[in-house]
Write a structure and sequence with these properties.
single chain; alpha/beta; Rossmann fold; Hypothetical Protein, Haloacid Dehalogenase-like Hydrolase, Chain: A, domain 2; 6-stranded mixed beta sheet; 4-stranded mixed beta sheet; 33% helix
């Protein structure tokens, strides 16, 4: 059987429109989100009235949030380094900007995801009472420098390496996850749920957060615009970027070569 799954670093609330647009013929759609912290089965609910929009519902297969003591440590360290911290709780973004650059970063993230941000001034105490974050973001102008400082601080704070949060460098932010979580672990959990060997998985990626995801899949495919460290870990680097529909182009080639086993009427289609 063929399973199509979405794997993303983003929260599920930013993926709904993509699930609806993809309109996979078989439902529910498996989604690995928040860089592996959550695994969901998503269904598109068709509207009864033609004037209404479709909407997505989901069932949670697994989730591993950032522990509260780690979240508190991240919030305080972020503030001491002059950065802005933000995270999702119950599909809302909470952030603590305190200067113009912080507001620029939060607004940039809003434009990227389409989600509104709730600004807080209580060190996220009320937000953390609602629930724990699947992942946290430290918005900053120099993620390389902030990554080094976070690594040093976490090593000094948590003697056991297994207690230190997963840190992932972004272009203008640092991501923080539960110590045991990465997108590759999310893939492993999803495959276990469907009793599918990792060796039969084709994974596409480009960023630092895709490293373990690419490594663990049976065939790790890296986009032309991918980061060098991810290209080195992949099985193949394709001559297409994300903007050039690299995933669909590669799947078409693989289907033509007979490397994909589709059921009747389920071939690769451009949408």
């Amino acid at each position: 059987r063929l399973l199509r799954a979405i794997a993303t670093g983003r929260d599920i609330s930013t993926v709904y429109e993509h699930i609806i647009k993809l309109n996979f013929p078989s439902h529910p759609t498996p989604v690995i989100c928040s860089n592996g912290a959550r695994g969901l089965l998503c269904n598109v609910e068709k509207p009864t009235n033609i004037s209404d929009d479709a909407h997505v519902t989901f069932d949670v297969l697994f989730e591993t949030p950032v522990p509260k003591h780690v979240a508190t440590e991240v919030i305080q360290l972020s503030k001491s380094l002059g950065c802005c911290c933000q995270f999702y709780v119950a599909q809302k973004i909470y952030a603590d900007p305190s200067r113009d650059q912080h507001f620029e970063h939060t607004e940039k993230y809003q434009q990227l995801t389409g989600c509104e941000t709730v600004y807080v001034k209580d060190d996220f105490r009320a937000a953390l009472e609602i629930g724990l974050p699947s992942k946290m973001l430290v918005l900053c102008a120099d993620p390389d420098s902030i990554l080094v400082k976070f690594q040093s601080h976490m090593e000094a704070t948590f003697a056991n390496p297994e207690d230190r949060p997963t840190l992932i460098r972004g272009n203008w932010f640092l991501e923080v996850l539960h110590p045991s979580i990465c997108k590759g672990v999310g893939l492993e959990k999803m495959c276990k749920h469907f009793h599918m060997p990792l060796s039969e998985v084709i994974a596409f990626g480009d960023g630092d957060n895709d490293l373990e995801f690419i490594q663990m899949a049976g065939r790790g495919v890296v986009m032309k615009n991918g980061r060098d460290m991810v290209k080195e870990a992949g099985d193949v680097v394709i001559p297409y970027t994300n903007d050039e529909d690299g995933v669909i182009q590669t799947l078409k080639v693989m289907e033509f070569a007979g490397h994909l086993r589709f059921g009747a009427g389920l071939g690769v289609k451009q949408t």
